[in-house]
Amino acid sequence: MTVGDYARLAGTEIHFDRADENNRWIGKLATSAQDPLWAVRDAPPSSGRFPVVVYAPGQSSVAWDNADLCEYLASQGYVVLAVPSLGASTRDADDNLDDLRAEARDILFLVDYARTLPNADVSRVAVVGWSWGGLSNVFAAAHDDRIKALVALDGSLRYYPGLLKKATDIHPERMNIPLLFFTRGDVSLEDWSRYATADNEGPSALNAWTHGDLVTVHMLGMSHPEFSSMTQRAHDDRKFAENRMADYDRDDVNVSYAWVARYTLAFLDASLGKDPNGMVFLKSDPASHGVPRHFLTIDVRAAAAAP
To answer: N or C: which end of the chain has fewer CB within 10 A?
Structure first.
C-alpha cells in the first residue's frame, strides 16, 4: 500500500460503488502519494485469534488518518478496524453531543462487526482514538463493557469536559478500565483561557479517572495535529511551523510518533493480556528503552478500588 492508495479510499467512503470526484485527500497527499507503507493488499491472514483494536479518527477525518499506527498494531498481532468520523446527519461532524454519539455508535458497530471475523477475539477489545476519537471512544466504552481498554492520542477528553457535563450518562469517575492518554507539548494557562467555551470548561476528566489505571505520556515535542501520521504528511512547512512546539523539527516529530506507537503497543499488550511485560515497559525509565532525552515524560497512576 502507498500513501496514494490510502488517499483514494476517501473517494468511496460513502458510496463504495461510486467514486467522489471531489476527494480532497488526493491533492493534500500528492507530494507523498508514491511513498510506501508496510501493509500488503490482500495479504493472507495469519492463523489464530487475536485481540481487536478499533481506531476512531479525528473529527470529520478519514478512517486511515493514522494508517502507520494501525498497520504497526496489526503487524504485532492485533485485528485493527477503523471507520471515518461522520456527523449524525452530515458527512462532517461538529462540536456537539449528537455528532459525538454518532462516532461512538460507529465504534460499537465495528465491535459488533468484529464478531463476524474468524480471527478476532472479541473478549479482548480496545479503542484507540485521536482528538475527537479520543472522546467518542469514552462514550462508546461507557455503554459497552466489551471494551476493555482505551487509548487517547491527545484526545478531546482533555479539552471538552463541558460536553461531558452535558452528557449525563457519561461518568469518568465511574470508569474502571485502563486508559493511556498522550498529551501534546506544553499548553499554557493563557492558551486555555483563549479557547474557553461552555463546551470545553468543566472538571478534568483525567483527574476523575481514578477507578481505572491511568497512564499519561507527555509528548513534549508534538503538537495536536502531529498525532495523525497522514495529517503530518499533508502539512507543508508553513503549516508545520504554525503548530511547531519549541524547537522540535520534523525529524523529532517522526521519532516522537514512533514512540507513541511503541508505548501504545506496550499498553495494549498489558491491558488485553497479550504480554504482561507491557506494564513493566510503561513503568520503566524511558531512557532505558532508548527514548531520546527531553522527548517525553510518563506518569502511571494505579486504579483505586472499583466503585
So the answer is: C
